[in-house]
């Protein structure tokens, strides 16, 4: 069967997102540490901010794995599950963009890029799922 339905742009985006997320995680972690040293960062807020960053990192692994697997095997279930996990990742990214204790310009930039890639990836996932059905 030469009728290949998996999306090459989506697969490339999964790869790019995987690399970018490593940068995002390390940059956000470094900024949280920086903010805790430079600003009066309340301890009762520092721990939840760190916890949310680690939860986001833990979500990123199955999100990318299921998305990539679903795309390559042309199965809508893993791709759909990846799309659901993406919603959680978007909410967490929005938290770091808007609601964390101190939001630096660098936070705004890296979260805007992440949200843009999540949005683009989500559109491509929906298109891929529609092609598989």
From TrEMBL:
Subcellular localization, as worded in the UniProt entry: Cell projection, Cilium; Membrane
Pfam families: Transmemb_17 (PF09799)
Keyword entries, A-Z: Cell projection, Membrane, Transmembrane, Transmembrane helix
Transmembrane segments: 12-34, 46-66, 78-102, 108-132
Species the sequence originates in: Sagittarius serpentarius
Leader sequence segment: none
Source lineage: Eukaryota, Metazoa, Chordata, Craniata, Vertebrata
InterPro entries in the record: Uncharacterised_TM-17 (IPR019184)
One example of a Gene Ontology biological process annotation: non-motile cilium assembly
GO cellular component: ciliary transition zone; membrane
Protein name, per record: TMM80 protein
Membrane topology of this protein: Multi-pass membrane protein
